Amino acid sequence: MSENQNLLAEQRRALILDEVRRRGGVRVNELTRRLNVSDMTIRRDLDALARQGVIEKVHGGAVPVVEASAHEPGFEAKSALELTAKEEIARSAAALAVPGSAIALSGGTTTFALARHLLDVPDLTVVTNSVRVADVFHDAQRPAAGGATRPGAATVVLTGGVRTPSDSLVGPVADRAIDSLHFDVLFLGVHGISAEAGLSTPNLAEAETNRRLVRAARRVVVVADHTKWGTVGLSSFAELAEVDTFVTDAGLAPGAREEIEERLPGLLVAGGAPSRAVPAPEG
Fold first, then answer.
1. pLDDT score for 100
2. How far apart are CA 247 and CA 269, in angstroms?
């Protein structure tokens, strides 16, 4: 981690969390030296990360929280993590959406960020099982001054189903709705992605609904920050071979990039050039 006294709290905490996960633990005095901030500032950062449930404070420092494979954080808890990375991923992924196409967005905080960047893509038909994503498009379509609606307003189909902690709709009702549809592109958020387990989630019903989404799409684009790589949830719902493009952030370790490039046709690192050629959007 580079020393920078002017780091925003969000950036500093993201660096601390990355260091905790990478090394398996950090000490307060090490962080004060590396980040060039006071002991009190670091302790406040650790308190904030502990409240989010992503680290555990110990005497003199912090260690990562080892989550059970069936643990599913709520939407608000996940929204506070990797904000900058999610915004960069969303901006890059939005460029893969073609005007006039039919797309699907799964639930998740990264797809929620992506939805905001898709508002100006004209004539989209959007299918989603995310209440939060549907709200983004619904709010944008409300009449503005003079009765005009926002340019590029999409046609949105929200599946039914049972609501999960991450505000996704899952279960038999959602599955039946998805089975009758076909998408040009699926933008898929994930709880975890790994070479061995593929794409996974802690929620069994969500796994089945995501499986149906993948099956209905001509092209699958996974949008996930670097912390998702190596994470494994209770239930796998797709293999890496079923993914066409993985959009992530520059925090992804070099070794992980190499492994992903060996297995996927497209890797897009937000904020930089594609590590491997990403298929052009189909129009």
1. 94
2. 6
Taking alpha carbons only, the member of 202, 131, 125, 201 closest to residue 162 is 131
Burial label for 146, CB within 10 Å (0-12, 13-18, 19+), is exposed
* Whole-number Å distance between alpha carbons of 101 and 126: 9
pLDDT at 50: 84
Q: What is the pLDDT of residues 151-165, one digit of tens each?
A: 556 789 999 898 887
What is the reported pTM? 0.70
Question: Quick one: pLDDT at residue 231?
Answer: 84
Q: How far apart are CA 133 and CA 137, in angstroms?
A: 7
Helix 131-140 to helix 109-117 angle (10° resolution) is 20
What is the pLDDT, as a whole number, of residue 198? 94
Please report, as a single letter, which amino acid is at residue 240. L
Q: How confident is the model at residue 76 (pLDDT cuts 50, 70, 90)?
A: very low
Round to whole Å and give the CA distance between 252 and 25.
Answer: 19
Report the alpha-carbon distance of residue 55 to residue 262 in Å, rounded: 32
**Are β-strands 61-64 and 102-105 bridged in parallel, bridged antiparallel, or unpaired?**
unpaired
Cα–Cα distance, 223 to 115 (Å, whole number): 12
Tokens representing 240 are 């890496």
* Residues 53, 73 contacting (CB under 8 angstroms): yes
Q: Tokens standing for 169?
A: 């709709």
Determine the pLDDT at residue 80.
47
Task: Tally the residues of the chain.
Answer: 283
Pairing of β 198-201 and β 192-194: antiparallel
Say if CB 61 and CB 151 are below 8 A apart: no
Backbone angles phi, psi at 42, to 5 degrees: -65, -40
